Amino acid sequence: MLFADAFKYKQWANAELLALGECQLSQMPDSDAEFFVRILNHTTVVDSLFISRLCGEAERYQGDNTRETPTFDELKARIAQNDAWLVDFAERATADELQRVIAFRFTDGDLGQLSVEEVLLHLLTHGSNHRGMAARTLAINGLERPKDTFTRYLHQAEPGRRELAREAIS
């Protein structure tokens, strides 16, 4: 299922970015290091909010970020927990589940209504956008950025794809 692959990619891309960030965070000015952590914390808070909405549970957060900046280890743990949940959910989701519509209140008070499929697409695009912002923070400081394209992920996850391509092109 494409959503399952996409969330496995999100999990992999988050891990790639966090590994590079962890090694290089001390090489950035404090303001950039804090931005790196906070922008990724924002994505995991939003993931958490929508996970709660998908489950019909009370939301853990009142806003789209936390007041306090988490430690890097706390951030990694939160992202890993949400990513694992989303991969599992995407692997189990049926066609009927993807069409289920949920109504909710955004953290700014506005009302919202999305299908589960739309929620999943939002989490994928939202996470990608903010991973890009965090990676840009590495780049502007002359640090290594992740090579985290979906195609790279697929070829690492399924190395046989390269051999099949060789056979098809030959």
TrEMBL record:
GO molecular-function terms, A-Z: metal ion binding
Sequence intervals crossing the membrane: none
Alphabetized UniProt keyword annotations: Metal-binding
Keyword DNA-binding: no
Residues annotated for a divalent metal cation binding in this entry: H42, H126, H130
Pfam family, one: DinB
Family from the record: Belongs to the DinB family.
Protein name: DinB family protein
Species of origin: Pseudomonas fulva (strain 12-X)
